[in-house]
Every structure is written in C-alpha cells, then in structure tokens.
C-alpha cells in the first residue's frame, strides 16, 4: 500500500508540476530562513556555556551615581582584585585581568600587530575552562615576563619553534612558556595571547597609575561563587568592603555587585568585554525568531491556498476512493504523506542552500556558525520537528477539506471551485501574507531613511580627506620629527596628535566638578587629550576663549599625570551647561577638577558641541586636555588630489620615524561608518526578509492566478467574443487581489508604525516617520503583485477564444 501511495504521490507531483515547483520553492525559502535563524539564536544562547563552572562564575561590576545620573561599568579599579582576595577568604577563586585591544609584537626582526591581548593572574585557568595545550599557567602567570600564545598565533609567530622571547609595544620582553587552544567562538572572553599579570604596567594605560582606586580603564574581576554563598550575601558584603578602600564621597556614589556569567552576553548596560565581543539582545533574538516563523507561515499559506484551490481536480479521485471503501482517516494520512514528501524535498534543498550561504553569513554577521547536522543533536532535532510542523501546518487543513468530500456530490459533478476551495480561507491567508510583507517593506523604507539621516547629519567637525594613523611612541622628539617631515609636503594640509577623532571609540570618561563647589556636584564627562592643531585639522569651532598654545603643551609632562603638572581645559557647550552656566563666557577663568587624579585646572576655552559618539547617544559633556602621553593617534588632513602618492609619502616618512612598527591608516569616514555597522546589518536583514516575503507571496499569487485562469478559460473566451478588451480581462483577474492587498495595508500600516517607532526610540537623533513611506510601501506591493497577476492573466486574455470554446 505504501508503494502504491508513493507512486500516486509522484504522479500527482508530475501532473501538477508547476504547482509542485511553486510549493517546493516557497517551502525551501521558508525552511532555509528558519534553519539560519535557529543557528543564530542557538549560537548566542550558547555563549560561555562550555565552562564547567558556568552557573557559579560571576563578574564584579560597578554602578556609579553622580549629579549626571547613573552609569554602569563592567570594568573595575585595578586594586580591587587583590583587595577582594584579601577580604573574602571564603571565596578562594577570584581572578583579575586587563584587556588590551592590540599591541605591537616583535620577535627577532619580525613584527606584527596582535589583537585581543589579556594580562591575567595565576587563577585564570582555575576559573575558566580554556584548554591548555602546553605549559603550566598556574605557576607561570604569577611571574613577570611570561606569556601564553593561542595555537593560531603561535603558528604565525613561532614558525615551529617551541620557545621564543617577544617584545610587546617596545616596552616589555616576555618569554613564551606555553600554548593554549583558541577560545571557542561563543565566548565573551576572546584572546590571542595571555601575558602574566606581574608584567602589566601603567604604560599600557597611558602612564596612569594602576594602584589608584579612582582609575578604571580595562580591568576585570571574575569570581567563582561557592555553593554555600548567595549573590545577595556577597553584594551586601561588598557594601562594607568598599568603605575600607574608597573615600567617603566615592563610597557613597559607587556600588560593587555581582553579574552572573549567563547575563554578560545579553546585558548591554555592562557592554565592555575582554575581547570586544559584541553583546546580543534577547529582544533581537525574539524578533528574528518571529520573523522566521512569519516567513515560514507565508510559505505554508502558499501551500494551503494552492492545495485548496486544486481540490476540484482531485475531487473525482476522492469520490472513487471513498466509493471503494476508503475511510476519511486513510485519505487524510495519504494527503499528509504528499505534504511530507514535498516538505522533505524542501528541507534537503534548504540544508544545501544554508551550507552554501554560511560563509557569507559568518562574514556579514561576524559570527562563526556551523551546520554540523550529524554532530549537533539539537539542530537535528529542530530540523525533524520543523519538518513535522510544516507538514501538519501546511497539509492538515487541505487534507481535512479533501477527505471530507461527499462521494455522491463529487461524482455527479455538483462540486465547484467556488464552493469547494475554501475561498474565504484563501482570502484571509492572502491578506495575512501581504500584511507581513508590507510591514517588512515599510520597515525597510524607514530604516533606509534613518541610515540616510546618519550619513547626512552634520557632526560638528570636518570629516573629508582626513586619515587616522596610530602613533606607537608618544615621545616629544619623535612626534616633532614626524610633524617636520610631513609638513614639508604641500599635500599635507594639517596634522594633529590626539587620543582619536572627535567621534571615535578612543575615549575615556571621568567625573568633573567646579573646584569652588567641591565634589558633591560631580558630573560625568568624556576626556579627550588633544594638541594645539586639533581645532584646525578637524574644523572644530571655538565659541569663546582661546585654544591650546605651544606654551600650554610645554607646561604638561609627557610621561604620566602628576599632581603638580599644569594643564588647561577646553570644554564643549554641553559641559558648560551641565555645570549650570547660562553664558559660555562665564566659565572662562574658572577652575574645574577631573578624575585624572582630580587635577584642578583653568578653563581657557569653549567649543561648539560636536558628536563624540554615534547618533544613538545625545551629545555629552567633553573636556579637552593638553596631555601628550595620550597621543595615540595622528589625524592627517590631506589634499584629495594625488591621494595615492600622498599616502606613499606618509608611509615612507612615518616608517623612517617609527621603523620598529607597521604603518596602518584608516579614513575617518570609514571609522565613523563602523559605529553604525549593527544598524547597517539590520537594514540589510530587513531588505532580505522583505524581499523574501514579497517573493513568496508573489509565488502564491502566481499559482492562484494560474489556477483561476485555467478555471475561467471558457468565461474569458465568451467575454472576448462579446468584445471584452485585454485590459478588462486583466482587471477581472486583478480586482480581487487589489482589494485583498488594500485590506492587508490597513492591517500592516499601524503595526509597521508601532514597531519602527519603538526601533527609532533607541536613537537620540532620529527622523520623524514620513507618511510617504507608507504610500510607497502600498504602491510598491500593489505594483509587484499586479505585475505577477498581469503576467499570467495577459496570457489568458490574448488566447484565441476559438480554442477554448471549440468543445461547446
């Protein structure tokens, strides 16, 4: 019997080949979207779960309160690790680390930039389960001058050697004492080398002392909570702990608490991680899951619509089977079997497509997804459940309709397409399809408008023809040498040394307050070390007072910040307003203190507000300081003409000044674009989902209109004989679908507005949702649908009526 069913199923597929292909194509796209989204969701949910102490590992984070409000940081002061181990003897596993985004490594005559470097203590591998391939980290990480390399970095650097000595940032020499496996992809801690904690010096954070509780740069502390301790107990003990090490003022404003390892990847409030692994959002994962389900529903709706529309063709077969004794349950299983066969074919094709798409997806989404179907039991189970779900969702309703026919009525030809095909259900499903499609289309148009706004909004400084080059050595002699060499070329329009461009990720925050009022009214402020040429290179507008002078720079030490150093400050307008001044001139000559050892310095100038971060955030207070030891970046304004020759000249002179380092550069426009990489990905994903949904919807429309054209062949022939035009016949087929799309728009418009309004609310600077995007979404959907309908209906309209009426 099963063999007979398989033969009949194959014959039905061949007999209705067009509809079979439409169903397979739609289901393949839907299943592919679901499999990819499942891989993405499980990838993010699996973060850090490979650690055996996953449920017991916590990170110490800090919340701070000031007159500006609350701030949350995952980094903590460097003395905290040692102090915690001293005061919490009942929590023996507490490890401390510092993260360095990149360093210059020299081995012999070779040199290369190495990213994701951590300094860790001897308890690091007791807390975390990263695999050690050789060496004894418990012993070595407690001694100065030791380093462990990941296997991939060791292959590049050591080139077969077992031991070597490396020089890091031309500052410290370390001995390679072991190899560790590369961190798993789903780890919030990412590293390429682990340097022993005693090797960490203030040089790596700009010379700022690391024994101060007021200094928070890139230090992290993790603990393993014993079974007999609760999070609430430790949080309460940390309240007492901080009073022993912080000043009374700082203790009142700062709170230390535990953050579970399971929360780290999904908590954007504490977004700094050792390895710069971006945080995920549970709401984003939910949105992706919902989109995947909707696309699958659209594909299943196609199947249901076509199956019920084709029911008239199978009615006689059903009547005969029932007359010969077939029961309804048998027929239901038979038609579900047909659906299962189609679904299996679609799933196999979709798995091949997914495997083909993964390399592109991994690069685009910055993930490392794998389709290991046989070794991944969760994925295998999902595919099996998905196959059953699609079969039931797509096939159950048509199977119940088909198996429920009365054989007497069927065999007397008293069943019609209008009466048997579930017309009302098909209309509802088509409306549902195009509601989803129009929500995605409108959303895509709104995201496109917001991205255009990003690219066109003035940022408060110049961005054209500026390149940024890292500075490996901040000594005054070398910087002056580089300036003299570059400014000899007329193609160099300006050169400024600083911590980075006005808008960049190279910032650090501090507290600031008026010296005359004291620290009770402390506000948060971004600190930007810059030189005296910064204003002219980046085109920042001075609103009051003066800019830095050469005399100001000579007063500042170029080694480390000291209590006796002399500085002057320049604030932006927001920083002045935050302190309560109504006129920017009123702050000139006043002294303020910042968290850089709370140095007190005079405010000599005020600049116009500029965006120091992405447009997701409002313009925050910024203080600019003449501090040469933080000149990690050279901003070079160049003549756009003969650009390639100018870059070659810069590389030559830069290499002459810094022969021990590698020359790298980046356009300022490109670095600004990276701030919106996630938004660009969202835009691309919406375009893909919108395109897929409208494509699947149009596949269904094409199938339905093809069925209607076949059913109305004689009606079309009679209309043509009576003088109907091609346009009127096309409208005969199109008017019903136009009504359905209009109804779908009425449903989709408010949903799209609400969803996109919520999305835009995450941006401090955003567009107002324009009305025309809804009009474009509606007319775009109508145009695509009408083109789909017209293609098939025109073929019917231009057919010869004599051919269709010959048998009448």
Would you mind describing this structure in some detail?
With 808 residues, the protein is α+β, with helices and mostly antiparallel strands. It has 27 helices and 22 strands. Strands 3-4-9-6-8-7 form a six-stranded mixed β-barrel. Strands 14-15-20-17-19-18 form a six-stranded mixed barrel. The protein has a four-stranded antiparallel sheet with strand order 13-21-12-22. Helix 12 (328-365) runs antiparallel to helix 13, helix 17 runs antiparallel to helix 21 (643-657) and helix 23 packs parallel to helix 26 (772-797). The protein is globular. 38% of the residues are buried. Residues 417-421 have low confidence and may be disordered.
Q: What spatial form do the alpha-carbon principal axes imply?
A: globular
Mean pLDDT: 83
Strand order of the largest sheet: 3-4-9-6-8-7
Beta-strand fraction estimate:
15-25%
Major sheet attributes: 6 strands, mixed, barrel
Structure classification? alpha+beta
Low-confidence sequence ranges? 417-421
Tell me the total number of β-strands: 22
Radius of gyration (Å): 34 Å
End-to-end CA span: 40 Å
Summarize the topology.
Elements: H1 2-15, H2 17-45, E1 57-66, E2 69-73, H3 80-87, E3 94-107, E4 110-120, H4 124-127, E5 132-134, H5 137-140, E6 146-150, H6 151-157, E7 165-168, E8 172-180, E9 193-196, E10 219-224, H7 231-243, H8 248-253, E11 254-260, H9 261-264, H10 282-309, H11 311-323, H12 328-365, H13 377-403, H14 407-411, H15 417-420, H16 423-456, E12 466-470, H17 476-487, E13 492-498, E14 508-514, E15 523-529, H18 534-538, E16 542-545, H19 550-555, E17 568-572, H20 573-578, E18 591-594, E19 600-607, E20 622-625, E21 633-638, H21 643-657, E22 666-667, H22 668-674, H23 677-711, H24 713-721, H25 726-760, H26 772-797, H27 801-805
Parallel strand pairs: 4-9, 6-8, 15-20, 17-19
Antiparallel strand pairs: 1-2, 1-10, 1-11, 3-4, 3-7, 3-10, 5-8, 6-9, 7-8, 12-21, 12-22, 13-21, 14-15, 14-18, 16-19, 17-20, 18-19
Helix pairs in contact: 2-10, 2-12, 2-13, 2-23, 10-13, 10-16, 10-23, 11-13, 12-13, 16-23, 16-25, 16-26, 17-21, 23-26, 25-26
């Amino acid at each position: 019997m099963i063999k007979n069913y398989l033969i009949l199923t194959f014959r039905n597929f061949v007999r209705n080949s067009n509809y079979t292909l439409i169903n397979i194509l739609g289901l393949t796209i839907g299943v592919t979207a679901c499999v990819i989204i499942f891989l993405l969701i499980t990838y993010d949910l699996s973060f850090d779960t490979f650690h055996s102490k996953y449920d017991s590992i916590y990170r110490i984070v800090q919340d701070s309160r000031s007159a500006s409000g609350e701030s949350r940081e995952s980094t903590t002061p460097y003395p905290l690790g040692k102090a915690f181990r001293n005061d919490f003897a009942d929590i023996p596993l507490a490890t401390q680390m510092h993260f360095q985004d990149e360093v210059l490594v020299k081995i012999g005559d070779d040199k290369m930039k190495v990213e994701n470097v951590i300094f860790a203590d001897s308890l690091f591998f007791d807390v975390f389960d990263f695999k050690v391939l050789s060496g004894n980290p418990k012993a070595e990480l407690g001694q100065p001058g030791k380093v462990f390399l990941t296997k991939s970095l060791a292959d590049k650097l050591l080139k077969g050697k077992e031991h070597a000595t490396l020089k890091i940032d031309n500052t410290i020499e370390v001995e390679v004492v072991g190899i560790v496996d590369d961190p798993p992809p789903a780890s919030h801690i990412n590293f390429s080398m682990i340097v022993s904690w005693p090797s960490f010096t203030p040089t790596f954070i700009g010379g700022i002392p690391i024994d101060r509780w007021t200094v928070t740069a890139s230090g992290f502390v993790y603990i393993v909570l014993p079974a007999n301790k609760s999070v609430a107990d430790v949080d309460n003990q940390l309240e007492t702990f901080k009073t022993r090490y912080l000043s009374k003022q700082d203790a009142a404003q700062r709170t230390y608490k535990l953050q579970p390892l399971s929360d780290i990847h999904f908590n954007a409030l504490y977004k700094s991680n050792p390895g710069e692994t971006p945080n995920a959002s549970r709401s984003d994962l939910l949105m992706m899951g919902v989109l995947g389900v909707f696309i699958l529903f659209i594909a299943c709706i196609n199947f249901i619509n076509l199956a019920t529309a084709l029911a008239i063709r199978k009615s006689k077969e059903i009547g005969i089977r029932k007359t010969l004794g077939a029961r309804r349950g048998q027929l239901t299983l038979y038609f579900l079997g047909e659906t299962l066969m189609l679904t299996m074919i679609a799933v196999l094709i979709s798995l091949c497509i997914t495997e083909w798409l993964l390399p592109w997806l991994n690069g685009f989404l910055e993930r490392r997804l794998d389709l290991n179907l046989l070794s991944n039991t969760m994925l295998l189970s999902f595919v099996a459940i998905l196959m059953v779900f699609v079969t039931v969702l797509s096939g159950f309703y048509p199977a119940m309709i088909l198996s429920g026919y009365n054989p007497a009525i069927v065999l007397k030809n008293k069943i019609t397409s209008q009466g048997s095909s579930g017309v009302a259900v098909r209309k509802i499903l088509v409306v549902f399809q195009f509601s989803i499609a129009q929500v995605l289309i409108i959303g895509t148009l709104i995201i496109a408008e917001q991205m255009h706004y990003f690219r066109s909004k003035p940022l408060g400084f110049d961005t054209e023809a500026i390149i940024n080059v890292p500075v490996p050595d901040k000594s005054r002699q070398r910087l002056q040498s580089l300036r003299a060499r570059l400014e000899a070329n007329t193609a160099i329009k300006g050169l400024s040394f600083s911590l980075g461009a006005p808008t960049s990720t190279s910032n650090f925050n501090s507290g600031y307050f008026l010296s005359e009022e004291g620290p009770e009214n402390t506000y948060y402020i971004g600190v930007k070390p810059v030189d005296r040429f910064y204003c002219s290179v980046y085109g920042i507008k001075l609103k009051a007072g003066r800019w830095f002078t050469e005399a100001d720079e000579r007063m500042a030490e170029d080694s480390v910040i000291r209590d006796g150093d002399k500085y002057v400050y320049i604030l932006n307008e927001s920083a002045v307003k935050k302190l309560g001044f109504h006129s920017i001139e009123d702050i000139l000559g006043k002294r303020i203190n910042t968290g850089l050892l709370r140095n007190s310095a005079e405010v000599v100038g005020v600049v116009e507000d500029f965006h120091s971060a992405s447009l997701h955030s409002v313009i925050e207070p910024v203080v600019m300081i003449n501090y040469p030891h933080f000149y990690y970046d050279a901003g070079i304004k160049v003549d756009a003409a003969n650009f390639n020759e100018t870059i070659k000249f810069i590389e030559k002179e830069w290499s002459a000044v810094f022969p021990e380092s590698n020359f790298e550069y980046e356009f300022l426009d490109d670095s600004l674009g990276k701030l919106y990489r996630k938004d660009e990905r969202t835009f691309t994903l919406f375009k893909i989902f919108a395109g897929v949904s409208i494509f699947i919807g149009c596949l269904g429309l094409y199938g339905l209109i093809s069925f209607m054209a076949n059913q109305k062949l004689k009606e079309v022939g009679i209309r043509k004989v009576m003088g109907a035009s091609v346009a009127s016949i096309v409208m005969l087929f199109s008017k019903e679908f136009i009504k359905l799309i209009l109804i779908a728009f009425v449903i989709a418009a408010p949903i799209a507005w609400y969803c996109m309004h919520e999305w835009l609310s995450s941006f401090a600077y955003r567009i107002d949702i324009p009305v025309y995007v809804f009009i474009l979404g509606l007319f775009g959907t109508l145009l695509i649908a009408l083109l789909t309908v017209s293609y098939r209906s025109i073929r019917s309209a231009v057919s010869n009526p004599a051919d269709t009426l010959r048998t009448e």
